[in-house]
Every structure is written in C-alpha cells, then in structure tokens.
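Researcher: Re-running this chain for the archive, since the previous output was lost when a drive failed. Same request as before.
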Amino acid sequence: MDELAFECASLDLVLLPHVLEFNEHPHQILREVERVLRPEGHLLISGFNPRSLWGARRALGAKTGYPWRGNFIALPRLKDWLALLGFEVVAGRFACYAPPLTSPGWLERLHFMEPAGDRWWAVCGGVYFLQAIKRVPGMRLIKPQWNEGLVGKLLPAAPKLNREVSQRTEPGHR
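Model: Regenerated structure tokens:
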C-alpha cells in the first residue's frame, strides 16, 4: 500500500476503508494517494475515532484482534495531513455511537445511543467517514488568437468612430 501501481494523476476516486490505522506509514499512503489522484479527484476515508467509546475501549483494553490492534488516528490530525497535501475536506460523518459490546442484551439496552448520537455527542462516534477533494492551485492562461489583419483594420477606425459619437452628443448638434 506504500506504493500504488498507478500512473500519476490517473484516478478520479480513491477509497481508503480503515487502511490508515493498520499501516505503519499512513503519511506515505496519503502521499501516494495524492500522487495518483487527478486534480479535483475525490478521496473517501473511513477510520476509527480515538475520541469515542471505541477509542476508550482500545486505550483501556487488550490491543489484540480487529480493530483494537490498529493505530486510531484523530480526525483533526488527519485533516492537518490532508491540508498539507493539498486536499480540501468537503464532508464528514460519524457513526457507531453505542459502545463496542458483543452482548445482544446490552446492545438492545443501549440502542437509544445510535439515533441520539448525531444530536447529543456528534463528534464521539466510533467510526468517521471523510470526503476530500484534491485541489491543485494555479491557472492556465488562455490567450485569444487575434487575426492580425482584422485588428489592423479596426484600430484606425476607432478614433474616427469616437469623434462621430462625440459630435452627435454635444449640445446644439442635432
């Protein structure tokens, strides 16, 4: 994943579903994505939020098995990385507000947390989704292709037209 087998500026869309947390070099992955994306190309990232009940479970529990052995990346940090690479974050969303439990009874009791999460603790979802667009600064000058013969004919006539217009608008001339 550190080196993508695509040409530079050849892709319109790249999806990274929980890729950054499970790689030793997430910066390199993002640099490769920036390399292979076309200008105005889209990047979709999903990741586990360390500032959530899921992140607390990872910090306090054993770090074995999926997803606990991953290196959860905080959203502000990820946004900084993307900004440094020239990406503009255009949308984001959180999900999985209930604690990471396996007991069906507890999941049923805490079911209210999912619909209330967006309203009451919006940035504390266990999973985030981020959409970014690769922005490329600069511009390309488009010069008109003038017909030199036509320009030469029109320019000498311009002062003549201006004199006629000014003579008509002066008071006393009708």
